[in-house]
Protein backbone atom coordinates (compact mmCIF):
# COMPACT_ATOMS: atom_id res chain seq x y z
CA UNK A 1 0.00 0.00 0.00
CA UNK A 2 1.48 3.33 -1.06
CA UNK A 3 1.91 6.04 1.58
CA UNK A 4 0.61 9.39 0.38
CA UNK A 5 1.98 12.31 2.38
CA UNK A 6 0.29 15.70 2.56
CA UNK A 7 1.98 18.36 0.41
CA UNK A 8 1.95 22.14 0.19
CA UNK A 9 -0.15 21.78 -2.96
CA UNK A 10 -2.85 19.96 -0.94
CA UNK A 11 -2.98 22.78 1.61
CA UNK A 12 -3.09 25.42 -1.12
CA UNK A 13 -5.96 23.66 -2.90
CA UNK A 14 -7.96 23.23 0.31
CA UNK A 15 -7.55 26.89 1.32
CA UNK A 16 -7.81 28.32 -2.21
CA UNK A 17 -4.35 29.87 -1.94
CA UNK A 18 -1.28 29.72 -4.16
CA UNK A 19 1.47 27.24 -3.29
CA UNK A 20 3.97 30.09 -2.93
CA UNK A 21 1.70 31.83 -0.40
CA UNK A 22 1.35 28.61 1.63
CA UNK A 23 5.12 28.02 1.48
CA UNK A 24 5.92 31.54 2.70
CA UNK A 25 3.27 31.29 5.43
CA UNK A 26 4.77 28.04 6.73
CA UNK A 27 8.18 29.73 6.83
CA UNK A 28 6.77 32.69 8.73
CA UNK A 29 7.58 35.19 5.99
CA UNK A 30 6.91 38.87 6.76
CA UNK A 31 5.28 39.12 3.31
CA UNK A 32 2.25 37.12 4.48
CA UNK A 33 -0.43 38.69 6.68
CA UNK A 34 -0.89 37.37 10.24
CA UNK A 35 -4.42 36.21 9.36
CA UNK A 36 -3.21 34.10 6.42
CA UNK A 37 -0.34 32.67 8.46
CA UNK A 38 -2.76 31.66 11.21
CA UNK A 39 -5.12 30.06 8.68
CA UNK A 40 -2.35 28.05 7.01
CA UNK A 41 -0.64 26.95 10.24
CA UNK A 42 -3.87 25.84 11.89
CA UNK A 43 -4.89 23.84 8.83
CA UNK A 44 -1.40 22.29 8.52
CA UNK A 45 -1.57 21.21 12.16
CA UNK A 46 -5.08 19.82 11.69
CA UNK A 47 -4.03 17.54 8.82
CA UNK A 48 -0.66 16.67 10.43
CA UNK A 49 1.43 18.23 7.66
CA UNK A 50 5.18 17.65 7.89
CA UNK A 51 7.79 19.10 5.48
CA UNK A 52 9.25 16.61 3.01
CA UNK A 53 12.82 15.95 4.19
CA UNK A 54 14.00 15.00 0.69
CA UNK A 55 12.67 18.21 -0.78
CA UNK A 56 14.26 20.21 2.04
CA UNK A 57 17.61 18.49 1.55
CA UNK A 58 17.58 19.29 -2.16
CA UNK A 59 16.80 22.92 -1.41
CA UNK A 60 19.32 23.34 1.40
CA UNK A 61 21.88 20.94 -0.08
CA UNK A 62 21.94 19.26 3.32
CA UNK A 63 20.23 16.14 4.61
CA UNK A 64 20.58 17.00 8.32
CA UNK A 65 21.74 13.41 8.78
CA UNK A 66 25.00 12.35 10.41
CA UNK A 67 26.63 8.96 9.97
CA UNK A 68 28.20 7.13 12.90
CA UNK A 69 30.73 4.35 12.35
CA UNK A 70 31.67 2.22 15.39
CA UNK A 71 32.80 -1.35 15.95
CA UNK A 72 29.80 -2.51 17.97
CA UNK A 73 26.72 -0.80 19.41
CA UNK A 74 26.44 -3.40 22.20
CA UNK A 75 29.84 -2.32 23.51
CA UNK A 76 29.26 -0.39 26.76
CA UNK A 77 31.58 2.42 25.72
CA UNK A 78 30.06 2.94 22.28
CA UNK A 79 26.45 2.72 23.44
CA UNK A 80 27.15 5.51 25.93
CA UNK A 81 29.05 7.58 23.36
CA UNK A 82 26.13 7.23 20.92
CA UNK A 83 23.74 8.42 23.64
CA UNK A 84 25.93 11.50 24.02
CA UNK A 85 25.93 12.09 20.27
CA UNK A 86 22.15 11.78 20.04
CA UNK A 87 21.58 14.09 23.01
CA UNK A 88 23.15 16.94 21.02
CA UNK A 89 22.25 15.96 17.45
CA UNK A 90 18.48 15.83 17.85
CA UNK A 91 18.40 19.13 19.75
CA UNK A 92 20.28 20.71 16.84
CA UNK A 93 17.90 19.29 14.25
CA UNK A 94 20.06 16.38 13.04
CA UNK A 95 19.27 12.68 12.79
CA UNK A 96 21.90 9.99 13.15
CA UNK A 97 22.47 6.81 11.15
CA UNK A 98 24.44 4.23 13.14
CA UNK A 99 26.55 1.51 11.50
CA UNK A 100 28.72 -1.26 12.96
CA UNK A 101 32.00 -2.58 11.56
CA UNK A 102 32.23 -5.57 13.94
CA UNK A 103 36.00 -4.90 13.86
CA UNK A 104 36.11 -5.59 10.10
CA UNK A 105 37.82 -3.03 7.86
CA UNK A 106 35.91 -4.25 4.82
CA UNK A 107 32.59 -3.76 6.59
CA UNK A 108 33.74 -0.36 7.82
CA UNK A 109 34.59 0.63 4.22
CA UNK A 110 31.17 -0.53 2.95
CA UNK A 111 29.42 1.36 5.77
CA UNK A 112 31.34 4.57 5.07
CA UNK A 113 30.63 4.40 1.35
CA UNK A 114 26.95 3.70 1.95
CA UNK A 115 26.62 6.64 4.33
CA UNK A 116 28.38 8.93 1.86
CA UNK A 117 26.07 7.78 -0.95
CA UNK A 118 23.09 8.64 1.25
CA UNK A 119 24.37 12.21 1.37
CA UNK A 120 25.05 12.50 5.10
CA UNK A 121 26.29 15.92 6.18
CA UNK A 122 29.23 14.44 8.07
CA UNK A 123 30.73 11.34 9.71
CA UNK A 124 31.71 10.44 13.27
CA UNK A 125 34.19 7.57 13.09
CA UNK A 126 35.86 5.22 15.54
CA UNK A 127 38.09 2.91 13.52
CA UNK A 128 37.83 -0.89 13.48
CA UNK A 129 40.66 -2.97 14.91
CA UNK A 130 41.64 -3.97 11.34
CA UNK A 131 41.78 -0.42 9.98
CA UNK A 132 45.31 0.81 9.40
CA UNK A 133 45.32 2.36 5.92
CA UNK A 134 42.05 4.19 5.28
CA UNK A 135 41.96 5.59 1.71
CA UNK A 136 38.14 5.36 1.62
CA UNK A 137 37.99 7.96 4.41
CA UNK A 138 40.88 10.07 3.14
CA UNK A 139 39.26 10.43 -0.29
CA UNK A 140 35.94 11.55 1.17
CA UNK A 141 37.65 14.04 3.46
CA UNK A 142 39.63 15.50 0.54
CA UNK A 143 36.35 15.93 -1.36
CA UNK A 144 35.00 18.03 1.51
CA UNK A 145 32.96 15.61 3.62
CA UNK A 146 33.28 16.67 7.28
CA UNK A 147 34.73 13.86 9.43
CA UNK A 148 35.49 13.79 13.16
CA UNK A 149 37.25 10.85 14.80
CA UNK A 150 36.67 9.72 18.37
CA UNK A 151 38.20 7.04 20.60
CA UNK A 152 40.18 5.19 17.88
CA UNK A 153 41.73 7.92 15.79
CA UNK A 154 44.22 8.33 12.95
CA UNK A 155 46.95 10.80 12.06
CA UNK A 156 46.29 10.35 8.32
CA UNK A 157 43.50 12.93 8.29
CA UNK A 158 43.80 16.45 9.67
CA UNK A 159 40.51 17.00 11.46
CA UNK A 160 38.99 17.23 14.95
CA UNK A 161 39.56 14.24 17.23
CA UNK A 162 38.12 13.41 20.65
CA UNK A 163 39.75 10.87 22.95
CA UNK A 164 40.10 9.80 26.54
CA UNK A 165 43.43 10.21 28.32
CA UNK A 166 44.39 6.63 27.49
CA UNK A 167 47.98 6.95 28.62
CA UNK A 168 47.14 8.22 32.10
CA UNK A 169 44.25 5.80 32.53
CA UNK A 170 46.54 2.85 31.81
CA UNK A 171 49.30 4.31 33.96
CA UNK A 172 47.01 4.67 36.98
CA UNK A 173 45.53 1.19 36.51
CA UNK A 174 48.95 -0.44 36.34
CA UNK A 175 50.34 1.57 39.24
CA UNK A 176 47.31 0.65 41.35
CA UNK A 177 48.05 -3.05 40.78
CA UNK A 178 51.69 -2.45 41.70
CA UNK A 179 50.63 -0.75 44.94
CA UNK A 180 48.63 -3.92 45.73
CA UNK A 181 51.98 -5.77 45.54
CA UNK A 182 51.43 -7.38 42.13
CA UNK A 183 54.69 -7.59 40.21
CA UNK A 184 53.99 -9.78 37.16
CA UNK A 185 51.23 -7.80 35.49
CA UNK A 186 50.05 -9.08 32.12
CA UNK A 187 48.52 -6.72 29.57
CA UNK A 188 45.86 -7.99 27.16
CA UNK A 189 45.17 -5.49 24.41
CA UNK A 190 43.84 -4.99 20.87
CA UNK A 191 45.56 -4.61 17.48
CA UNK A 192 49.04 -3.06 17.88
CA UNK A 193 48.43 -0.30 15.29
CA UNK A 194 45.35 1.17 17.00
CA UNK A 195 45.82 4.54 18.69
CA UNK A 196 44.24 3.34 21.94
CA UNK A 197 46.52 0.26 21.98
CA UNK A 198 49.67 2.34 21.61
CA UNK A 199 48.67 4.92 24.22
CA UNK A 200 47.54 2.39 26.82
CA UNK A 201 50.60 0.22 26.28
CA UNK A 202 52.84 3.24 26.90
CA UNK A 203 51.01 4.04 30.14
CA UNK A 204 51.42 0.43 31.29
CA UNK A 205 55.14 0.37 30.43
CA UNK A 206 55.89 3.72 32.09
CA UNK A 207 54.16 2.68 35.32
CA UNK A 208 56.31 -0.46 35.42
CA UNK A 209 59.44 1.58 34.73
CA UNK A 210 58.66 4.08 37.50
CA UNK A 211 58.52 1.22 40.01
CA UNK A 212 61.61 -0.47 38.53
CA UNK A 213 59.69 -3.53 37.31
CA UNK A 214 61.26 -4.86 34.09
CA UNK A 215 58.97 -4.85 31.06
CA UNK A 216 58.43 -8.39 29.76
CA UNK A 217 57.03 -8.51 26.23
CA UNK A 218 55.85 -12.09 26.89
CA UNK A 219 53.28 -10.64 29.30
CA UNK A 220 51.69 -8.54 26.54
CA UNK A 221 49.11 -10.31 24.35
CA UNK A 222 47.39 -8.76 21.33
CA UNK A 223 43.83 -9.75 20.43
CA UNK A 224 43.38 -8.44 16.89
CA UNK A 225 39.57 -8.60 16.97
CA UNK A 226 39.39 -6.73 20.28
CA UNK A 227 37.61 -9.45 22.23
CA UNK A 228 34.80 -10.04 19.72
CA UNK A 229 36.12 -13.59 19.27
CA UNK A 230 36.30 -15.13 22.73
CA UNK A 231 38.62 -17.91 21.54
CA UNK A 232 41.25 -15.28 20.79
CA UNK A 233 41.12 -14.07 24.40
CA UNK A 234 41.08 -17.63 25.75
CA UNK A 235 44.19 -18.44 23.70
CA UNK A 236 45.92 -15.36 25.12
CA UNK A 237 45.11 -16.40 28.69
CA UNK A 238 46.18 -20.00 28.09
CA UNK A 239 49.52 -18.85 26.67
CA UNK A 240 50.09 -16.54 29.62
CA UNK A 241 49.45 -19.16 32.27
CA UNK A 242 51.50 -21.79 30.47
CA UNK A 243 54.48 -19.49 30.11
CA UNK A 244 57.63 -19.50 32.19
CA UNK A 245 56.61 -16.28 33.91
CA UNK A 246 52.99 -16.62 35.04
CA UNK A 247 51.12 -13.37 35.70
CA UNK A 248 49.85 -12.50 39.15
CA UNK A 249 47.59 -9.75 37.74
CA UNK A 250 45.95 -8.84 34.44
CA UNK A 251 45.24 -5.43 32.99
CA UNK A 252 42.93 -5.38 29.94
CA UNK A 253 42.84 -2.49 27.50
CA UNK A 254 39.28 -2.28 26.16
CA UNK A 255 35.64 -2.70 27.10
CA UNK A 256 34.92 -6.04 25.44
CA UNK A 257 38.34 -7.47 26.29
CA UNK A 258 37.70 -6.69 29.95
CA UNK A 259 34.30 -8.37 30.25
CA UNK A 260 35.24 -11.38 28.08
CA UNK A 261 38.55 -11.92 29.85
CA UNK A 262 37.03 -11.64 33.33
CA UNK A 263 34.34 -14.16 32.40
CA UNK A 264 36.91 -16.59 30.99
CA UNK A 265 38.99 -16.39 34.16
CA UNK A 266 35.90 -17.43 36.12
CA UNK A 267 35.31 -20.36 33.77
CA UNK A 268 38.96 -21.39 34.09
CA UNK A 269 38.28 -21.59 37.84
CA UNK A 270 41.05 -19.21 38.80
CA UNK A 271 41.08 -18.86 42.57
CA UNK A 272 40.37 -15.43 44.05
CA UNK A 273 43.94 -15.11 45.36
CA UNK A 274 45.53 -16.24 42.10
CA UNK A 275 45.27 -13.16 39.98
CA UNK A 276 44.45 -9.48 40.37
CA UNK A 277 42.39 -7.84 37.66
CA UNK A 278 41.49 -4.44 36.27
CA UNK A 279 40.57 -3.12 32.86
CA UNK A 280 39.07 -0.42 30.69
CA UNK A 281 35.28 -0.81 30.67
CA UNK A 282 32.23 1.39 30.96
CA UNK A 283 29.92 -1.33 32.20
CA UNK A 284 27.39 -0.13 34.77
CA UNK A 285 27.49 -3.54 36.45
CA UNK A 286 31.06 -3.60 37.72
CA UNK A 287 29.98 -3.89 41.34
CA UNK A 288 27.77 -6.89 40.51
CA UNK A 289 30.65 -9.03 39.23
CA UNK A 290 32.14 -11.59 41.59
CA UNK A 291 34.45 -10.27 42.85
CA UNK A 292 33.40 -6.66 42.11
CA UNK A 293 35.41 -5.32 39.19
CA UNK A 294 38.03 -2.57 39.35
CA UNK A 295 37.71 -0.51 36.17
CA UNK A 296 39.11 2.43 34.26
CA UNK A 297 36.04 4.33 33.15
CA UNK A 298 36.03 6.69 30.19
CA UNK A 299 33.70 9.71 29.93
CA UNK A 300 32.02 8.12 26.89
CA UNK A 301 28.83 10.21 26.99
CA UNK A 302 30.84 13.45 27.14
CA UNK A 303 33.19 12.23 24.38
CA UNK A 304 30.15 11.63 22.17
CA UNK A 305 28.76 15.08 22.94
CA UNK A 306 32.09 16.78 22.24
CA UNK A 307 32.58 14.90 18.96
CA UNK A 308 29.14 15.83 17.58
CA UNK A 309 29.53 19.47 18.63
CA UNK A 310 32.83 19.70 16.73
CA UNK A 311 31.33 17.99 13.68
CA UNK A 312 28.35 20.35 13.58
CA UNK A 313 30.75 23.30 13.82
CA UNK A 314 32.45 22.09 10.62
CA UNK A 315 29.14 21.39 8.86
CA UNK A 316 27.63 24.77 9.69
CA UNK A 317 30.74 26.90 9.22
CA UNK A 318 30.38 29.58 6.56
CA UNK A 319 34.05 29.20 5.65
CA UNK A 320 36.32 26.15 5.23
CA UNK A 321 37.63 25.00 8.62
CA UNK A 322 41.43 24.77 8.62
CA UNK A 323 42.25 24.76 12.33
CA UNK A 324 41.63 21.46 14.10
CA UNK A 325 42.18 20.21 17.64
CA UNK A 326 42.38 16.98 19.59
CA UNK A 327 40.24 17.11 22.72
CA UNK A 328 41.34 14.82 25.54
CA UNK A 329 38.99 13.95 28.41
CA UNK A 330 40.14 12.37 31.68
CA UNK A 331 39.39 8.81 32.77
CA UNK A 332 38.63 7.66 36.31
CA UNK A 333 39.87 4.61 38.21
CA UNK A 334 37.10 2.92 40.21
CA UNK A 335 38.66 0.56 42.72
CA UNK A 336 36.83 -2.58 43.80
CA UNK A 337 37.76 -6.01 45.12
CA UNK A 338 39.07 -7.62 41.89
CA UNK A 339 42.37 -5.72 42.13
CA UNK A 340 42.98 -6.30 45.83
CA UNK A 341 45.60 -8.84 46.84
CA UNK A 342 44.69 -11.27 49.59
Task: Give the total of domains.
Answer: 3
Q: Please state the second-level CATH architecture of the largest domain.
A: 3-Layer(aba) Sandwich
**Helix proportion:** 40-55%
By oligomeric state, this entry counts as single chain
Structure summary, number of beta strands = 12
Q: Give the C-alpha Rg.
A: 26 Å
- With helices defined by DSSP (H or I, 4 residues minimum), what is the helix count? 12
What form results from the Cα inertia axes? elongated
Text of the CATH class of the largest domain: Alpha Beta
Which strand order does the major sheet show? 2-1-3-4-5-11
What are the segments in which pLDDT stays under 50 over at least 5 consecutive residues? Answer: none
From the 3D structure, determine the CATH topology of the largest domain: Rossmann fold
Structural key phrases:
single chain, 342 residues, alpha/beta, 434 Repressor (Amino-terminal Domain), Rossmann fold, 6-stranded parallel β-sheet, 6-stranded mixed β-sheet, 12 helices, 12 strands, elongated
